[in-house]
Amino acid sequence: MPQRCCQYAGWQLPSLTEDYGTFCRLRRNDCGVTAVHISLKVEFGGGLELLFDNQRSHKLTLPARVPLDNSTSSPPSSPPSPQNNEYEGETKPVDVAYLIHWLRHHLLKERAELFMEGDTVRPGILVLINDTDWELEGEGEYVIKNGDEVVFISTLHGG
Amino acid sequence: MPRLCALCATQRPILKRPKTGQQICKTCFFHVFETEVHNTIVEAQLFQPGDRVAIGASGGKDSTVLAHVMKTLNDRYNYGLELFLLSIDEGITGYRDDSLETVKQNQKEYNLPLKILSYNELYGWTMDSIVEAVGRKNNCTFCGVFRRQALDRGAAMLGVDHIVTGHNADDVAETVLMNIMRGDIARLGRCTAICTKGEDTIKRSKPFKYTYEKEIVMYAYFKHLTYFSTECIYSPDAYRGHARSFLKLLEAARPSAIIDIIYSGEACEVSEEATKELKERKTCKRCGYMSSNDLCKACTLLEGLERGMASAGITDRGRKQLEASGPAPDGLRTIPFFQMNAQSPSQSAPDDGRDSAPPMPAVVGVEAG
Ligand SMILES: [Zn+2]
Ligand SMILES: [Zn+2]
């Protein structure tokens, strides 16, 4: 029997529940239903963690589809449902550009100008997606997949 | 279809090189990173077999990677160098004391002797106490002057006549920009030199002169090197900060900008006339360190601190005020007399009768690895 999404089927996959919270992760669409959420790991280094409550590692759950304009006004902290996951405007699959906006609005604790400049990270901040330079992965346009790891490292601190 | 490394064409690339735009794999990255530093060292003929070389180690990313790479290259290519770690403890609570822990970790990992010299033992002041006395306006001037001299003195104590520092391509380009903005022509060409040496002082080299900061940070990341990355709590050098942001913007638009700026600096050959001023050096009458005036910058700053006239070493007006207020009083704290190791004691003794000042506490010996 193929694994089904708990969100729709009403039951949970215990092993995934522990890792990713109450709302289970879809197994890469193999239940035939589009995933509503994506889980990922975010890490900060090179002094950047100081802007994020001095915490290096964060586990996040983001909506699978997000507004085209990267508006992060409905935080995914409230349990999502297929209903409230639908934004009024146009949507796109969640990408790193959205992640950056989300981090800035929901996780960053101080001095936003040291993290973002314009629509992206401040020049001098390196980004790695699954241990690969994001410049090889399409930068902000990289579509985040379940279980991805995104690392932000500042090069601007200290010598 | 999976992309492949531009160099080995077998592995998956993990990095886009800012210098060349090449997409390369982890193995090739380590190899080209280390080999380029090696080539820089060989081309500039920085070392001779048997040289005793101190790595200026702050615990930050650049010097942590430098220590790793120097150790690696020395073993791989049989440079025959005797390497040391040299750290300056400025006495900044919550900043330097933490970063020195990182240096001590490096010492254990690389099994290199470590020497820590503190402002407190050399000058009788910590940066914390200096900031308390002068406020946060000119503290970076004190720190810069004191650090430079402390590094030279630390090197002399180690019997080393060559210090390598972690200055990278971004740092050099930033300094070129700042010298242009200041109109400092004499320093413009000089700041790009890979190795600088004063008359009787210690050589300083930058093996990372052509190494991009991005690659240094990536190298540390992929090699799992731990470094300390907190901003100095006293360093609001806004001007330098703007220069750095500007450089990063240029780099984002065209990654070769950094190396281009370095080449521009190198191309600014400075005529003998302009550099003459920099070359004429005497030694400080009080402490024996090289100086262009009777008193070196550190001694002037220290006397100002001791006599409660902190601006003495910073502005011309301040110095005149200090001179006008009479000679330095007896018992003034001074810096121990500077002598290069194994050099004849022919350097003139202080002629102002103040050589009887109480000697500074003896420096702690080299901690063996
Ligand atoms: Zn390769
Ligand atoms: Zn002096």
Automatic annotation (TrEMBL), chain A:
<comment type="pathway">
    <text>tRNA modification; 5-methoxycarbonylmethyl-2-thiouridine-tRNA biosynthesis.</text>
</comment>
<keyword id="KW-0819">tRNA processing</keyword>
<protein>
    <recommendedName>
        <fullName>Ubiquitin-related modifier 1</fullName>
    </recommendedName>
</protein>
<dbReference type="InterPro" id="IPR012675">
    <property type="entry name" value="Beta-grasp_dom_sf"/>
</dbReference>
<dbReference type="GO" id="GO:0034227">
    <property type="term" value="P:tRNA thio-modification"/>
</dbReference>
<dbReference type="InterPro" id="IPR016155">
    <property type="entry name" value="Mopterin_synth/thiamin_S_b"/>
</dbReference>
<comment type="similarity">
    <text>Belongs to the URM1 family.</text>
</comment>
<keyword id="KW-0833">Ubl conjugation pathway</keyword>
<keyword id="KW-1017">Isopeptide bond</keyword>
<dbReference type="InterPro" id="IPR015221">
    <property type="entry name" value="Urm1"/>
</dbReference>
<feature type="cross-link" description="Glycyl lysine isopeptide (Gly-Lys) (interchain with K-? in acceptor proteins)">
    <location>
        <position position="159"/>
    </location>
</feature>
<feature type="region of interest" description="Disordered">
    <location>
        <begin position="65"/>
        <end position="89"/>
    </location>
</feature>
<dbReference type="GO" id="GO:0032447">
    <property type="term" value="P:protein urmylation"/>
</dbReference>
<feature type="modified residue" description="1-thioglycine">
    <location>
        <position position="159"/>
    </location>
</feature>
<dbReference type="GO" id="GO:0005829">
    <property type="term" value="C:cytosol"/>
</dbReference>
<comment type="function">
    <text>Acts as a sulfur carrier required for 2-thiolation of mcm(5)S(2)U at tRNA wobble positions of cytosolic tRNA(Lys), tRNA(Glu) and tRNA(Gln). Serves as sulfur donor in tRNA 2-thiolation reaction by being thiocarboxylated (-COSH) at its C-terminus by the MOCS3 homolog UBA4. The sulfur is then transferred to tRNA to form 2-thiolation of mcm(5)S(2)U. Prior mcm(5) tRNA modification by the elongator complex is required for 2-thiolation. Also acts as a ubiquitin-like protein (UBL) that is covalently conjugated via an isopeptide bond to lysine residues of target proteins such as AHP1.</text>
</comment>
<dbReference type="GO" id="GO:0002098">
    <property type="term" value="P:tRNA wobble uridine modification"/>
</dbReference>
<dbReference type="Pfam" id="PF09138">
    <property type="entry name" value="Urm1"/>
</dbReference>
<keyword id="KW-0963">Cytoplasm</keyword>
From TrEMBL, chain B:
<dbReference type="InterPro" id="IPR032442">
    <property type="entry name" value="CTU1_C"/>
</dbReference>
<comment type="similarity">
    <text>Belongs to the TtcA family. CTU1/NCS6/ATPBD3 subfamily.</text>
</comment>
<dbReference type="InterPro" id="IPR011063">
    <property type="entry name" value="TilS/TtcA_N"/>
</dbReference>
<dbReference type="InterPro" id="IPR020554">
    <property type="entry name" value="UPF0021_CS"/>
</dbReference>
<keyword id="KW-0819">tRNA processing</keyword>
<keyword id="KW-0820">tRNA-binding</keyword>
<feature type="binding site">
    <location>
        <position position="171"/>
    </location>
    <ligand>
        <name>ATP</name>
    </ligand>
</feature>
<dbReference type="InterPro" id="IPR000541">
    <property type="entry name" value="Ncs6/Tuc1/Ctu1"/>
</dbReference>
<feature type="domain" description="tRNA(Ile)-lysidine/2-thiocytidine synthase N-terminal">
    <location>
        <begin position="53"/>
        <end position="231"/>
    </location>
</feature>
<keyword id="KW-0694">RNA-binding</keyword>
<keyword id="KW-0067">ATP-binding</keyword>
<feature type="binding site">
    <location>
        <begin position="56"/>
        <end position="58"/>
    </location>
    <ligand>
        <name>ATP</name>
    </ligand>
</feature>
<dbReference type="InterPro" id="IPR056369">
    <property type="entry name" value="CTU1-like_ATP-bd"/>
</dbReference>
<dbReference type="Pfam" id="PF01171">
    <property type="entry name" value="ATP_bind_3"/>
</dbReference>
<dbReference type="InterPro" id="IPR035107">
    <property type="entry name" value="tRNA_thiolation_TtcA_Ctu1"/>
</dbReference>
<protein>
    <recommendedName>
        <fullName>Cytoplasmic tRNA 2-thiolation protein 1</fullName>
        <ecNumber>2.7.7.-</ecNumber>
    </recommendedName>
</protein>
<comment type="pathway">
    <text>tRNA modification; 5-methoxycarbonylmethyl-2-thiouridine-tRNA biosynthesis.</text>
</comment>
<feature type="domain" description="Cytoplasmic tRNA 2-thiolation protein 1 C-terminal">
    <location>
        <begin position="283"/>
        <end position="311"/>
    </location>
</feature>
<dbReference type="GO" id="GO:0005739">
    <property type="term" value="C:mitochondrion"/>
</dbReference>
<keyword id="KW-0963">Cytoplasm</keyword>
<feature type="binding site">
    <location>
        <position position="88"/>
    </location>
    <ligand>
        <name>ATP</name>
    </ligand>
</feature>
<dbReference type="InterPro" id="IPR014729">
    <property type="entry name" value="Rossmann-like_a/b/a_fold"/>
</dbReference>
